[in-house]
Amino acid sequence: MALQEASEAYLVGLFEDTNLCAIHAKRVTIMPKDIQLARRIRANVPNGMTDLLCRKREREREREYGVR
């Protein structure tokens, strides 16, 4: 179960970043190049920072949906 939760958290975060890349390009549809850009940017973020961002997003979802 922990592997599924970690995988889902990673993918949700990746798609959130991907969507921001598409919005920045003034599009509403994500494209493969948006995912590539999001992954490239994430590669330059120190690993500890990625963990902090994942935890922050998880807390926001918990507050929004009232689940853990």
Automatic annotation (TrEMBL):
One GO cellular component, as annotated: nucleosome
Annotated ranges, domain Core Histone H2A/H2B/H3: 2-41
PANTHER family: HISTONE H3
Stored SMART domains: H3
InterPro entries with a match to the protein in the record: H2A/H2B/H3, Histone-fold, Histone_H3/CENP-A
Pfam families assigned to the protein according to its UniProt record, in alphabetical order: Histone
Coiled-coil positions: none
Protein name listed in UniProt: Core Histone H2A/H2B/H3 domain-containing protein
Source domain of life: Eukaryota
GO molecular function: DNA binding; protein heterodimerization activity; structural constituent of chromatin
Assigned protein family: Belongs to the histone H3 family.
